[in-house]
Design goal:
The protein is α+β, with helices and mostly antiparallel strands. It is about 30% helix and about 20% strand. It folds into 3 domains: about 30 residues, no CATH class; about 110 residues; about 40 residues, no CATH class. It has a 3-stranded antiparallel sheet. Strands 4-5 form a two-stranded antiparallel ribbon. A two-stranded antiparallel ribbon has the order 6-7. It starts with about 20 loop residues before the first helix and ends in a 9-residue tail after the last strand. The relative contact order is 0.09.
């Protein structure tokens, strides 16, 4: 169908093969680029009727009553090769009501982080970094805990390692040998490590060595 042009031609533009002008095509490309840079938030995980859970007993010298920490997991991508466990909620119970308020607040915040999905392992480092101004304590075996909050972080780390979200730290062959030597010689007289603060610094072959992190004064 022919079209008669009656007005004077004052300009023109080149149409792309797809039938769009360069300006329209450029605007669409720009819009697509902006869309690709938008960060989309993950929707919160929905609680199913049944969850898999583990309960851990934590005894500290700060109280005569133990803490019972329960972490429930949701199964993601169930029935596929990508099936994995994702922590969904946490509960902390104790007969000691001294810390009740802040423990309830902490469990609600942690549970909210769990339900957001994704990698939640950063919580472990954040909780480990909390120090009690009154001073920490040593667990049986000589491991130092700077606070009760750090102890809760230790429990979460143990659970995340159990479900495969965190890899257990590798122990070098050299450190294994030193631990075997210390087991034979005994741990009497062990002192606190300057690096990790654990009560596991012993003298081996004339050199002070930490059996927890491998730190040695001899390099």
């Amino acid at each position: 169908m022919s079209v008669k042009i009656e007005n004077k031609i004052v300009g023109y533009e080149v149409i792309s093969p797809e039938g769009e002008s360069k300006e329209i095509a450029a605007s669409k490309t720009s819009a697509e680029d902006k869309e690709s840079k938008v960060v989309h938030m993950r929707p919160l995980l929905t609680r199913p009727e049944e969850l898999h859970g583990s309960t851990y007993k934590v005894k500290t010298p700060l109280s005569d009553h133990a803490l019972y920490i329960t972490i429930n997991d949701i199964v993601v991508n169930s029935g596929t090769k990508y099936e994995r466990y994702q922590p969904f909620e946490i509960f902390i119970n104790s007969k000691n009501m001294e810390n009740f308020a802040w423990i309830v607040a902490l469990t609600r915040v942690i549970s909210a982080v769990f339900r957001s999905g994704g990698d939640v392992s950063f919580l472990v480092e954040e909780l480990h970094a909390v120090f009690d101004p009154r001073g920490g304590y040593y667990k049986p075996g000589g491991k130092y805990m700077p606070s009760l909050v750090a102890e809760i972080g230790e429990c979460i780390e143990m659970h995340l390692t159990k479900i495969g979200m965190i890899k257990a730290p590798e122990v070098t062959e050299e450190l294994k040998v030193k631990r075997e030597q210390a087991a034979e010689a005994g741990l009497m007289g062990s002192t606190s490590c300057h690096k990790c603060s654990q009560l596991s610094m012993v003298r081996l072959d004339g050199c002070d060595t930490c059996l927890e992190c491998g730190y040695s004064k001899c390099g």
